[in-house]
Design goal:
Two copies of one chain form a homodimer. Chain A contains eight helices and three strands. By secondary structure, chain A is mainly alpha-helical. Chain A folds into two domains: 82 residues, Arc Repressor Mutant, subunit A (Orthogonal Bundle); 73 residues. Chain A is elongated. Chains A and B meet through helix 1, helix 2, helix 4, strand 3 and helix 5 of A and helix 1, helix 2, helix 4, strand 3 and helix 5 of B. The first copy, chain A, binds a DNA duplex through helix 3 and strand 2. Chains A, B: It comes from Sneathiella chinensis. Chains A, B: InterPro entries: Tscrpt_reg_PadR_N, WH-like_DNA-bd_sf, WH_DNA-bd_sf. Chains A, B: Pfam families: PadR (PF03551).
Chain lengths: 181, 181
Amino acid sequence: MDIRTLCLGLLTFGEATGYEIKKAFQDRMSMVYDASFSSIYPSLNRLTKEGLVSCRAESQSRRPDRKVYSITPAGREEFLKEIHNAPAADKFRSDFLATLMFSHLLQPGNVSRLIDNQIMDYRQKKDELSQGCGMKQSQSEQFLCGFGVTMYQAAIEYLEQNRHLIEAPAPVRAPAKQSVK
Amino acid sequence: MDIRTLCLGLLTFGEATGYEIKKAFQDRMSMVYDASFSSIYPSLNRLTKEGLVSCRAESQSRRPDRKVYSITPAGREEFLKEIHNAPAADKFRSDFLATLMFSHLLQPGNVSRLIDNQIMDYRQKKDELSQGCGMKQSQSEQFLCGFGVTMYQAAIEYLEQNRHLIEAPAPVRAPAKQSVK
DNA sequence: CGGAACATGTAATACGTTACATGATTAA
DNA sequence: TTAATCATGTAACGTATTACATGTTCCG
Protein backbone atom coordinates (compact mmCIF):
# COMPACT_ATOMS: atom_id res chain seq x y z
CA MET A 1 0.00 0.00 0.00
CA ASP A 2 1.52 3.30 -0.98
CA ILE A 3 1.65 6.52 1.00
CA ARG A 4 -1.07 8.07 -1.11
CA THR A 5 -3.53 5.29 -0.26
CA LEU A 6 -2.54 5.39 3.39
CA CYS A 7 -3.16 9.16 3.51
CA LEU A 8 -6.59 8.51 2.08
CA GLY A 9 -7.17 5.89 4.75
CA LEU A 10 -6.11 8.16 7.58
CA LEU A 11 -8.58 10.74 6.37
CA THR A 12 -11.40 8.23 7.01
CA PHE A 13 -10.80 9.04 10.70
CA GLY A 14 -11.59 12.69 10.10
CA GLU A 15 -10.22 15.75 8.38
CA ALA A 16 -6.60 16.69 8.83
CA THR A 17 -3.74 18.77 7.52
CA GLY A 18 -0.60 17.28 5.99
CA TYR A 19 1.21 18.05 9.16
CA GLU A 20 -1.34 16.16 11.24
CA ILE A 21 -1.23 13.22 8.87
CA LYS A 22 2.49 12.99 9.41
CA LYS A 23 1.81 12.78 13.14
CA ALA A 24 -0.88 10.18 12.56
CA PHE A 25 1.67 8.09 10.67
CA GLN A 26 4.01 8.30 13.63
CA ASP A 27 1.39 7.75 16.30
CA ARG A 28 -0.72 5.01 14.81
CA MET A 29 1.17 3.45 11.93
CA SER A 30 4.85 3.70 12.79
CA MET A 31 4.93 -0.03 13.43
CA VAL A 32 4.06 -0.91 9.85
CA TYR A 33 4.64 2.21 7.77
CA ASP A 34 6.23 5.60 7.91
CA ALA A 35 6.18 8.59 5.64
CA SER A 36 8.01 11.86 5.30
CA PHE A 37 6.52 15.25 4.46
CA SER A 38 8.00 14.95 1.02
CA SER A 39 5.77 12.04 0.22
CA ILE A 40 2.71 13.22 2.15
CA TYR A 41 2.33 16.68 0.64
CA PRO A 42 2.57 15.55 -2.99
CA SER A 43 0.20 12.67 -2.21
CA LEU A 44 -2.37 15.07 -0.81
CA ASN A 45 -2.08 17.31 -3.82
CA ARG A 46 -2.52 14.40 -6.14
CA LEU A 47 -5.53 13.07 -4.22
CA THR A 48 -7.08 16.53 -4.48
CA LYS A 49 -6.58 16.62 -8.23
CA GLU A 50 -8.13 13.18 -8.45
CA GLY A 51 -11.16 14.36 -6.51
CA LEU A 52 -10.64 11.80 -3.75
CA VAL A 53 -10.13 14.44 -1.10
CA SER A 54 -11.24 18.03 -0.82
CA CYS A 55 -9.20 20.84 0.60
CA ARG A 56 -10.20 23.86 2.61
CA ALA A 57 -7.47 26.45 3.11
CA GLU A 58 -7.37 28.49 6.28
CA SER A 59 -5.15 31.49 5.87
CA GLN A 60 -2.93 32.23 8.79
CA SER A 61 -0.83 35.28 9.43
CA ARG A 62 2.90 34.85 8.80
CA ARG A 63 2.61 31.13 8.21
CA PRO A 64 1.75 28.99 5.17
CA ASP A 65 -1.98 28.46 4.71
CA ARG A 66 -3.26 25.66 6.84
CA LYS A 67 -4.82 23.24 4.35
CA VAL A 68 -7.41 21.00 5.90
CA TYR A 69 -8.20 17.91 3.85
CA SER A 70 -11.37 15.82 3.99
CA ILE A 71 -12.12 12.59 2.21
CA THR A 72 -14.84 12.79 -0.46
CA PRO A 73 -17.44 10.08 -1.16
CA ALA A 74 -15.38 9.08 -4.21
CA GLY A 75 -12.31 8.83 -2.01
CA ARG A 76 -14.13 6.71 0.53
CA GLU A 77 -15.27 4.37 -2.22
CA GLU A 78 -11.78 4.12 -3.66
CA PHE A 79 -10.28 3.31 -0.28
CA LEU A 80 -12.99 0.75 0.48
CA LYS A 81 -12.11 -0.99 -2.77
CA GLU A 82 -8.44 -0.91 -1.85
CA ILE A 83 -8.82 -2.62 1.52
CA HIS A 84 -10.98 -5.33 0.02
CA ASN A 85 -8.07 -6.46 -2.14
CA ALA A 86 -5.94 -9.26 -0.79
CA PRO A 87 -3.09 -7.54 1.04
CA ALA A 88 0.43 -7.86 -0.37
CA ALA A 89 2.75 -10.15 1.57
CA ASP A 90 4.59 -8.73 4.55
CA LYS A 91 8.07 -7.46 3.91
CA PHE A 92 10.84 -7.76 6.44
CA ARG A 93 14.28 -6.26 5.90
CA SER A 94 17.01 -6.74 8.45
CA ASP A 95 20.55 -5.54 8.08
CA PHE A 96 21.25 -7.10 11.45
CA LEU A 97 20.29 -10.57 10.25
CA ALA A 98 22.01 -10.00 6.91
CA THR A 99 25.19 -9.12 8.78
CA LEU A 100 24.95 -12.30 10.82
CA MET A 101 24.89 -14.29 7.57
CA PHE A 102 28.48 -13.17 7.26
CA SER A 103 29.46 -13.77 10.87
CA HIS A 104 32.25 -16.02 9.58
CA LEU A 105 34.00 -12.78 8.62
CA LEU A 106 33.64 -11.20 12.07
CA GLN A 107 35.54 -11.79 15.26
CA PRO A 108 33.54 -13.49 18.02
CA GLY A 109 33.64 -10.34 20.14
CA ASN A 110 32.06 -8.35 17.37
CA VAL A 111 29.28 -10.87 16.89
CA SER A 112 28.49 -10.68 20.59
CA ARG A 113 28.45 -6.92 20.60
CA LEU A 114 26.20 -6.88 17.56
CA ILE A 115 23.70 -9.17 19.26
CA ASP A 116 23.86 -7.24 22.53
CA ASN A 117 23.04 -4.04 20.72
CA GLN A 118 20.23 -5.60 18.77
CA ILE A 119 18.65 -6.97 21.94
CA MET A 120 18.87 -3.55 23.58
CA ASP A 121 17.32 -2.04 20.47
CA TYR A 122 14.44 -4.50 20.40
CA ARG A 123 13.87 -4.01 24.12
CA GLN A 124 13.69 -0.28 23.75
CA LYS A 125 11.29 -0.42 20.84
CA LYS A 126 9.17 -2.94 22.66
CA ASP A 127 9.00 -0.67 25.72
CA GLU A 128 8.12 2.38 23.66
CA LEU A 129 5.38 0.43 21.98
CA SER A 130 4.07 -0.99 25.27
CA GLN A 131 3.83 2.45 26.75
CA GLY A 132 1.96 3.79 23.75
CA CYS A 133 -0.38 0.78 23.80
CA GLY A 134 -2.25 1.86 26.89
CA MET A 135 -2.98 5.26 25.45
CA LYS A 136 -4.50 3.93 22.25
CA GLN A 137 -8.22 4.34 22.02
CA SER A 138 -9.45 1.91 19.39
CA GLN A 139 -9.34 -1.86 19.49
CA SER A 140 -7.53 -2.04 16.16
CA GLU A 141 -4.76 0.15 17.44
CA GLN A 142 -4.35 -1.91 20.58
CA PHE A 143 -4.38 -5.05 18.50
CA LEU A 144 -1.60 -3.75 16.24
CA CYS A 145 0.35 -2.50 19.20
CA GLY A 146 0.10 -5.87 20.90
CA PHE A 147 1.25 -7.55 17.70
CA GLY A 148 4.38 -5.42 17.68
CA VAL A 149 5.14 -6.05 21.33
CA THR A 150 4.73 -9.78 20.80
CA MET A 151 7.09 -9.79 17.83
CA TYR A 152 9.78 -7.85 19.64
CA GLN A 153 9.48 -10.16 22.64
CA ALA A 154 9.79 -13.24 20.45
CA ALA A 155 12.86 -11.79 18.73
CA ILE A 156 14.52 -10.97 22.05
CA GLU A 157 13.89 -14.44 23.43
CA TYR A 158 15.16 -16.11 20.29
CA LEU A 159 18.36 -14.11 20.33
CA GLU A 160 18.96 -14.78 24.00
CA GLN A 161 18.31 -18.49 23.73
CA ASN A 162 20.16 -19.15 20.50
CA ARG A 163 23.01 -16.67 20.35
CA HIS A 164 25.46 -19.33 21.48
CA LEU A 165 24.98 -21.07 18.13
CA ILE A 166 26.85 -18.33 16.32
CA GLU A 167 28.93 -16.95 19.16
CA ALA A 168 30.82 -20.20 19.67
CA PRO A 169 30.92 -21.81 16.26
CA ALA A 170 31.50 -25.55 16.50
CA PRO A 171 34.85 -26.35 14.93
CA VAL A 172 34.44 -27.96 11.55
CA ARG A 173 36.45 -31.12 11.24
CA ALA A 174 37.10 -31.13 7.52
CA PRO A 175 36.62 -27.57 6.35
CA ALA A 176 35.47 -28.12 2.80
CA LYS A 177 36.08 -25.45 0.25
CA GLN A 178 32.95 -23.37 0.48
CA SER A 179 30.88 -22.20 -2.44
CA VAL A 180 27.92 -19.88 -2.97
CA LYS A 181 25.76 -22.62 -4.41
CA MET B 1 22.33 -2.74 2.86
CA ASP B 2 21.87 -2.50 -0.85
CA ILE B 3 21.90 -5.26 -3.43
CA ARG B 4 25.36 -4.32 -4.61
CA THR B 5 26.83 -4.81 -1.13
CA LEU B 6 24.93 -8.04 -0.65
CA CYS B 7 26.28 -9.37 -3.96
CA LEU B 8 29.75 -8.56 -2.74
CA GLY B 9 29.00 -10.41 0.48
CA LEU B 10 27.71 -13.49 -1.27
CA LEU B 11 30.92 -13.63 -3.26
CA THR B 12 32.86 -14.08 0.00
CA PHE B 13 31.47 -17.63 -0.06
CA GLY B 14 33.14 -18.31 -3.37
CA GLU B 15 32.98 -17.31 -7.01
CA ALA B 16 29.65 -17.26 -8.79
CA THR B 17 27.75 -16.07 -11.84
CA GLY B 18 24.92 -13.56 -11.67
CA TYR B 19 22.51 -16.38 -12.14
CA GLU B 20 23.95 -18.28 -9.20
CA ILE B 21 23.87 -15.17 -7.03
CA LYS B 22 20.18 -14.85 -7.73
CA LYS B 23 19.75 -18.41 -6.47
CA ALA B 24 21.87 -17.64 -3.42
CA PHE B 25 19.56 -14.74 -2.62
CA GLN B 26 16.59 -17.09 -2.78
CA ASP B 27 18.20 -19.96 -0.91
CA ARG B 28 20.02 -18.19 1.86
CA MET B 29 18.70 -14.65 2.13
CA SER B 30 15.05 -14.75 1.07
CA MET B 31 14.02 -14.25 4.67
CA VAL B 32 15.62 -10.83 4.90
CA TYR B 33 16.31 -9.72 1.35
CA ASP B 34 15.49 -10.50 -2.22
CA ALA B 35 16.81 -9.28 -5.53
CA SER B 36 15.89 -9.54 -9.16
CA PHE B 37 18.23 -10.08 -12.09
CA SER B 38 17.70 -6.46 -13.03
CA SER B 39 19.41 -5.32 -9.90
CA ILE B 40 22.00 -8.09 -9.68
CA TYR B 41 23.50 -7.79 -13.16
CA PRO B 42 24.02 -4.02 -13.03
CA SER B 43 25.44 -4.39 -9.50
CA LEU B 44 27.96 -6.92 -10.69
CA ASN B 45 28.99 -4.71 -13.59
CA ARG B 46 29.42 -1.78 -11.27
CA LEU B 47 31.44 -3.80 -8.76
CA THR B 48 33.69 -4.88 -11.61
CA LYS B 49 34.25 -1.29 -12.71
CA GLU B 50 35.04 -0.40 -9.11
CA GLY B 51 37.61 -3.17 -8.90
CA LEU B 52 35.85 -4.91 -6.04
CA VAL B 53 35.21 -8.05 -8.04
CA SER B 54 36.91 -9.58 -11.02
CA CYS B 55 35.24 -11.32 -13.87
CA ARG B 56 36.23 -14.31 -15.95
CA ALA B 57 34.10 -14.96 -19.01
CA GLU B 58 33.53 -18.50 -20.22
CA SER B 59 32.20 -18.52 -23.72
CA GLN B 60 29.45 -21.00 -24.37
CA SER B 61 27.92 -22.03 -27.63
CA ARG B 62 24.50 -20.58 -28.36
CA ARG B 63 24.20 -19.03 -24.93
CA PRO B 64 25.39 -15.75 -23.42
CA ASP B 65 28.91 -15.90 -22.01
CA ARG B 66 28.94 -17.35 -18.55
CA LYS B 67 30.57 -14.66 -16.44
CA VAL B 68 32.10 -15.96 -13.28
CA TYR B 69 32.76 -13.31 -10.65
CA SER B 70 35.25 -13.46 -7.79
CA ILE B 71 35.77 -11.00 -4.98
CA THR B 72 39.08 -9.13 -5.03
CA PRO B 73 41.15 -8.21 -1.95
CA ALA B 74 39.83 -4.65 -2.30
CA GLY B 75 36.30 -6.02 -2.41
CA ARG B 76 36.86 -8.12 0.67
CA GLU B 77 38.19 -5.11 2.51
CA GLU B 78 35.23 -2.98 1.45
CA PHE B 79 32.75 -5.59 2.57
CA LEU B 80 34.53 -6.08 5.88
CA LYS B 81 34.23 -2.37 6.50
CA GLU B 82 30.55 -2.51 5.62
CA ILE B 83 29.63 -5.24 8.10
CA HIS B 84 31.51 -3.47 10.87
CA ASN B 85 29.14 -0.52 10.61
CA ALA B 86 26.18 -0.50 12.95
CA PRO B 87 23.36 -2.14 10.99
CA ALA B 88 20.38 -0.01 9.99
CA ALA B 89 17.20 -0.66 11.93
CA ASP B 90 14.94 -3.49 10.82
CA LYS B 91 12.12 -2.54 8.53
CA PHE B 92 8.78 -4.24 8.64
CA ARG B 93 6.01 -3.47 6.17
CA SER B 94 2.64 -5.13 6.48
CA ASP B 95 -0.35 -4.40 4.31
CA PHE B 96 -2.25 -6.93 6.35
CA LEU B 97 -1.73 -4.99 9.57
CA ALA B 98 -2.32 -1.69 7.80
CA THR B 99 -5.64 -3.02 6.54
CA LEU B 100 -6.62 -4.05 10.06
CA MET B 101 -6.07 -0.45 11.15
CA PHE B 102 -9.13 0.26 9.07
CA SER B 103 -11.19 -2.71 10.19
CA HIS B 104 -13.91 -0.27 11.21
CA LEU B 105 -14.62 0.05 7.49
CA LEU B 106 -14.91 -3.70 6.93
CA GLN B 107 -17.70 -6.10 7.71
CA PRO B 108 -16.94 -8.61 10.49
CA GLY B 109 -16.98 -11.49 8.06
CA ASN B 110 -14.30 -9.84 5.96
CA VAL B 111 -12.08 -9.21 8.95
CA SER B 112 -12.30 -12.89 9.88
CA ARG B 113 -11.52 -14.02 6.37
CA LEU B 114 -8.55 -11.66 6.23
CA ILE B 115 -7.14 -13.09 9.45
CA ASP B 116 -7.79 -16.67 8.39
CA ASN B 117 -5.87 -16.11 5.18
CA GLN B 118 -3.01 -14.42 6.96
CA ILE B 119 -2.67 -17.28 9.41
CA MET B 120 -2.63 -19.77 6.56
CA ASP B 121 0.00 -17.67 4.84
CA TYR B 122 2.22 -17.47 7.89
CA ARG B 123 1.83 -21.19 8.49
CA GLN B 124 2.89 -21.99 4.95
CA LYS B 125 5.90 -19.72 5.06
CA LYS B 126 6.89 -21.11 8.42
CA ASP B 127 6.67 -24.67 7.08
CA GLU B 128 8.69 -23.86 3.98
CA LEU B 129 11.32 -22.26 6.15
CA SER B 130 11.35 -25.17 8.62
CA GLN B 131 11.89 -27.63 5.82
CA GLY B 132 14.74 -25.61 4.39
CA CYS B 133 16.30 -25.25 7.83
CA GLY B 134 17.45 -28.85 8.08
CA MET B 135 19.26 -28.63 4.77
CA LYS B 136 21.27 -25.58 5.68
CA GLN B 137 24.91 -26.25 6.24
CA SER B 138 26.28 -23.35 8.25
CA GLN B 139 25.37 -22.30 11.74
CA SER B 140 24.54 -18.78 10.64
CA GLU B 141 22.05 -20.06 8.12
CA GLN B 142 20.37 -22.28 10.68
CA PHE B 143 20.31 -19.42 13.13
CA LEU B 144 18.60 -17.12 10.64
CA CYS B 145 16.21 -19.83 9.62
CA GLY B 146 15.28 -20.47 13.23
CA PHE B 147 14.72 -16.77 13.73
CA GLY B 148 12.24 -16.72 10.89
CA VAL B 149 10.40 -19.79 12.11
CA THR B 150 10.14 -18.27 15.59
CA MET B 151 8.75 -15.02 14.24
CA TYR B 152 6.13 -16.74 12.13
CA GLN B 153 5.11 -18.91 15.06
CA ALA B 154 4.78 -15.88 17.34
CA ALA B 155 2.66 -14.08 14.75
CA ILE B 156 0.36 -17.07 14.30
CA GLU B 157 -0.15 -17.45 18.04
CA TYR B 158 -0.81 -13.77 18.52
CA LEU B 159 -3.43 -13.74 15.77
CA GLU B 160 -5.14 -16.85 17.10
CA GLN B 161 -5.22 -15.63 20.68
CA ASN B 162 -6.20 -12.02 20.03
CA ARG B 163 -8.33 -12.02 16.93
CA HIS B 164 -11.50 -11.77 18.99
CA LEU B 165 -10.48 -8.23 19.94
CA ILE B 166 -11.18 -6.97 16.45
CA GLU B 167 -13.62 -9.61 15.27
CA ALA B 168 -16.21 -8.72 17.90
CA PRO B 169 -15.66 -5.06 18.57
CA ALA B 170 -17.07 -4.03 21.94
CA PRO B 171 -19.94 -1.64 21.38
CA VAL B 172 -18.95 1.91 22.11
CA ARG B 173 -21.38 3.60 24.47
CA ALA B 174 -21.03 7.21 23.42
CA PRO B 175 -19.46 7.19 19.97
CA ALA B 176 -17.52 10.43 20.05
CA LYS B 177 -16.76 12.13 16.77
CA GLN B 178 -13.47 10.62 15.78
CA SER B 179 -10.47 12.54 14.58
CA VAL B 180 -7.07 11.68 13.08
CA LYS B 181 -5.18 13.35 15.88
C1' DC C 1 18.42 31.86 23.97
C1' DG C 2 17.72 27.49 22.07
C1' DG C 3 14.87 23.92 20.59
C1' DA C 4 10.51 21.87 19.55
C1' DA C 5 6.27 22.43 17.24
C1' DC C 6 3.73 24.53 13.58
C1' DA C 7 3.33 24.73 8.28
C1' DT C 8 4.13 23.70 3.18
C1' DG C 9 6.51 22.72 -0.55
C1' DT C 10 10.36 21.52 -4.65
C1' DA C 11 14.64 19.38 -6.63
C1' DA C 12 17.89 16.04 -6.93
C1' DT C 13 18.82 11.57 -6.15
C1' DA C 14 18.69 6.66 -4.88
C1' DC C 15 17.09 2.29 -5.31
C1' DG C 16 14.53 -1.04 -7.02
C1' DT C 17 10.83 -3.24 -9.97
C1' DT C 18 8.35 -4.84 -14.27
C1' DA C 19 8.44 -5.35 -18.94
C1' DC C 20 11.12 -6.08 -22.93
C1' DA C 21 14.72 -8.64 -25.75
C1' DT C 22 16.75 -13.45 -26.92
C1' DG C 23 17.40 -18.07 -27.03
C1' DA C 24 19.17 -23.29 -26.03
C1' DT C 25 18.77 -27.42 -23.14
C1' DT C 26 16.70 -30.75 -20.31
C1' DA C 27 13.43 -33.20 -17.62
C1' DA C 28 8.48 -34.64 -16.91
C1' DT D 1 4.85 -30.31 -25.49
C1' DT D 2 5.35 -27.62 -21.86
C1' DA D 3 7.67 -26.03 -18.11
C1' DA D 4 11.91 -25.28 -15.71
C1' DT D 5 16.68 -24.15 -15.84
C1' DC D 6 20.40 -21.88 -17.81
C1' DA D 7 22.24 -17.10 -19.21
C1' DT D 8 22.65 -11.85 -19.62
C1' DG D 9 21.22 -7.59 -20.22
C1' DT D 10 18.47 -2.67 -21.14
C1' DA D 11 14.52 0.66 -20.86
C1' DA D 12 10.83 2.59 -18.67
C1' DC D 13 8.78 3.45 -14.62
C1' DG D 14 7.48 3.89 -9.70
C1' DT D 15 8.17 5.15 -5.19
C1' DA D 16 10.30 7.17 -1.63
C1' DT D 17 14.28 9.61 0.49
C1' DT D 18 17.48 13.54 1.60
C1' DA D 19 18.59 18.04 1.01
C1' DC D 20 17.07 22.54 0.11
C1' DA D 21 13.96 26.68 0.84
C1' DT D 22 11.38 29.70 4.45
C1' DG D 23 9.62 31.24 8.19
C1' DT D 24 6.79 32.09 13.21
C1' DT D 25 5.42 30.87 17.80
C1' DC D 26 5.72 28.99 22.15
C1' DC D 27 7.89 26.73 26.06
C1' DG D 28 11.55 26.15 29.35
